[in-house]
Write a structure and sequence with these properties.
35% strand; 235 residues; single chain; 17% helix; eight-stranded mixed sheet; alpha+beta; Nucleoside Triphosphate Pyrophosphohydrolase
Length: 235
């Protein structure tokens, strides 16, 4: 079977914004609490994921994987994210959820996600409470990813693996669950139009040398899975 040519490296920030979804309601704040999330996953609504399969752009066999969606229980829920190092073979330099390929010894997707989170950033399992999973998301690089949503108790000390993780940071869940912060992009390559979302976030905790806040450019598969979480919580 033939697939399209590999997608060339490009700066996703350079692709024009085609639309912002500020016409959609944000998830109500009373749904963004540990209690509300436990209840939602215990009795999920009928809903449909918005993003499921990216257009394939690499000739690879599908591989099962899982990522952790770690929601740290601070004054408000904060999503823990990583920035990948630039030397990785896939999705280098991108912002990501901790996770990776499923091992034969993993018992399920949650086991994969928790193991990978420990290996990547040193997040201890005894600080996590798995709530449930979201529908699988298939990336253009043929990873079949199961997102595993978990609450995380503060007090942990992270130890990022420098071979995989360049940075670890947190973003308010309420910001990500507000579609006014969701931007739509599209680019044509090899005759195929590829579309994705971005959720740029200015990190008040980090100032650059020029004094400006550091932009965390969340896009691609990570943004797609977060959009599905938005649909799940707003259903």
């Amino acid at each position: 079977m033939q697939f399209s040519k590999p997608l060339p490296k490009f700066d996703p920030r350079s692709i024009p914004v085609q639309g912002i979804d500020d016409h959609l309601d944000s998830v109500a704040l009373d749904r963004l609490t540990p209690f509300a999330l436990r209840r939602r996953f215990a009795s999920p609504p009928i809903w449909t994921p918005e993003h499921s399969v990216e257009k394939k752009f690499e000739n690879r066999e599908p591989a099962a994987a899982a990522v952790l969606v770690p929601l740290v229980m601070r004054d408000e829920l904060m999503l823990l994210l990583t920035q990948r190092t630039t030397n990785l073979s896939t999705h280098s330099g991108q912002i990501a959820l901790p996770g990776g390929r499923t091992d034969d010894t993993d018992t399920d997707a949650a086991d994969t996600a928790l193991r990978e989170a420990t290996e990547e950033i040193g997040l201890p399992r005894n600080h996590t409470e798995v709530l449930g999973t979201l529908p699988v998301y298939v990336t253009g690089t043929a990873y079949v990813i199961t997102p595993v949503v978990a609450l995380v108790t503060p007090g942990f000390v992270l130890q990022p693996n420098p071979a995989e993780v360049a940075d670890v940071f947190e973003v308010p869940l309420a910001y990500l669950m507000n579609p006014a912060n969701h931007r739509r992009h599209a680019v044509e390559f090899d005759g195929i139009t590829r579309e994705w979302l971005s959720m740029p976030y200015l990190d008040a905790a980090v100032r650059q040398e020029d004094g400006q806040l550091k932009e965390r450019f969340i896009w691609g598969a990570t943004a797609g899975m977060l959009r599905n979480l938005y649909r799940f919580l707003s259903a």
